[in-house]
Amino acid sequence: MSNPSVAAKYQVLQISKNGRSFPLQSKVTSFDYYESLLSPNVTATMSFVDSGLVEDGDSQVTYDKEYDKQERPGTIYNGLPITGDGSEEIAFKISSPLGVLDFSRTPLYVNGAVNPDQGSNRESVVLSLVSKSAITNQETHVKKNYSNHTNNTNIVESIAKNILKLDKLQIDETSNKYPFIGNNKSPFDVICMLASKSTPEKGNPGFFFYETRDGHSFKAIDSLIDKEPVATYFRTDVNKTSVSDNSNDFKILSFSINKNQNLINALKSGVYSNRRVVFNPKTFKEEEVDFNLESLEKALGKKEAPRPKDTKYTRVLYSVKDVGALSSKVEESDEGDVNTYQGAVQMRYNLLFTQVAKMQVPCNPNLKAGDIVKCNLEIITPGKKEQGDADPVESGNYMILDLCHHYDTERSFTAMTLVRDTYGLYTNKS
Asked: I need a surface site. Which of 40, 98, 190, 409 has the fewest CB within 10 A?
């Protein structure tokens, strides 16, 4: 039987630079791996202590010839040396009772290094790590005119393949295109911009561009919501189960929830209903488009999202129609004009954060940002000691907005931020 409190095992953990590699398993004190729907690249933070002495299975670190021709012994931080210039690679493969986090073939790169504690016989080092795409993003730019592509999916694929050189990309089809000129913007900025201006073939507008251990994804919010839960977690009385029980692997260690029910702020943001006024510089006319929650097709909880009764549009958004900006010929086509649905995009993003929860569970490397998890939260019944039923309001499906897989010398766990747009146990699925 597995024990969720046990420390993780570092099957592979090494640093490499200029053909030199050194193991870190015996030196690492903590390792944190991060994913988020709001971040186009994964990150990690690693701490280790180095005395410069040879540990079991380790090799003696000597100063690089460029810095010391005598190649005298030293620590990894000074001997390699670690400069944080993107040339140091960290390959790792970490196992825990529920799975393996494997970046042994696709290493992360050192983005920064801090040497906070340096003594006469040891030094502590904290490394900030990023995926290769984060470095490539800063080294490249989007310059060309993207007015000839059939839809936004084609544009994203072109940038991902030809500029970012991404090997893995999961992408949903879009039904619209947004013509634009790159203007030397970074690829991540351009794709994230397209995410907010894209509509799927079916469902509500709104996409996320993010990276997980499986690679990059350009996914519609509705397609993420429509997935089945990858795991079910339970919150019960801690005294009723043994730590050696297998069921503890899916036991909620901590859970806190923020019901984002600030009515005034929601009304100001136009979450429930808004109007978009679009000015056409060719015709000098204004077009008005209203949006409300009636258009919401998919939700994580009950079929209807929470909203006040009899609410008219509470925010007015103004924009100028892009007519003839990409061509010498002024065209009347509405193709690519996001003004007709931008209000719905804003509504979809804001509504997704109706409920925000923080949850910590035994380390589960199989969980990824964008996954759906089901939470069975025991109802609080005053004076009742036996196990209760699931709370009908707080229980149900949640989407993982971001997560951290934490590993240290004593234990491992997964901490998550969960979001959903409605309340309750029930889903749209029959």
From this structure: 409
